Amino acid sequence: MRKGEERSLAKKLWRATMARIHEELPSASFQMPSSGIVQATVCARSGKLPIAGLCDGVLKSEYFAEGTVPTESCDVHYQGMICQYTNLPASEPCPFKVGGVLELMPIEHPALQQSASVTQQITNPDGTVSNIAVPQNQTNTCPHTIEFMTQPGVEGIVEQQRLEIEAAIQAQAAAQAAASQPEGAPAPPPPTTATGQRSKN
Ligand SMILES: [Zn+2]
Ligand SMILES: [Zn+2]
């Protein structure tokens, strides 16, 4: 047998073999088993259906037995008027309400049962994120109700709270600036006993 014929025969054999292999592999064998398992995207915080624009950063894909896919929308992320003082959804007459996105603690969260206050994140209108401690006995809305706002001397209370908010925001901004820019930051050094910047490497 000459070289050319040899090569041509090998080719023929190869083609015939591959053709048979493909015949024996029906394409159905590559499909996912459709045994009642469905995939759905949920909010990782609440495990419920994500709200567009609110849960975008914490989406996760999960498998569910058919029929158990959550049907409720996320109840952890909140968008609307937020009380800057309490970091709760704002009451109608609240003097500190700002538009923003709020991440509420699920009521069953252990932090709510163990400590007197919980830390909540608030996304400020300027894009910065603040962590503010919120009393444990949180209600659905902030305490700046009509009753609160019409009590005698409320101006003084509101002014005091406004100062507290400003101080908290400034402390937050300073902490963030210090964290993101360890050197040359305009923020004062953190009040720790550490002397100077230590680099790990
Ligand atoms: Zn969510
Ligand atoms: Zn309020």
Task: Describe it.
The chain is α+β, with helices and mostly antiparallel strands. It folds into 2 domains: 35-75, no CATH class; 77-180, no CATH class. Helix content is 29%, strand content 21%. The protein has 4 helices and 6 strands, in the order αββββαββαα. It has helices spanning 3-24, 110-114, 146-149, 154-180; strands at residues 37-43, 59-65, 77-83, 97-103, 117-123, 129-135. The strands form 2 sheets. The chain has a 4-stranded antiparallel β-sheet. A two-stranded antiparallel sheet has the order 1-2. The longest helix has 27 residues, at 154-180. The chain starts with a helix and ends in a 21-residue tail after the last helix. One zinc ion (ZN) is lined by residues 83, 85-86, 90-91, 94, 96, 142, 144.
How do the helices and strands line up, and which of them pair or pack?
Elements (H helix, E strand, L loop, with lengths): L2 H22 L12 E7 L15 E7 L11 E7 L13 E7 L6 H5 L2 E7 L5 E7 L10 H4 L4 H27 L21
Antiparallel strand pairs: 1-2, 3-4, 4-5, 5-6
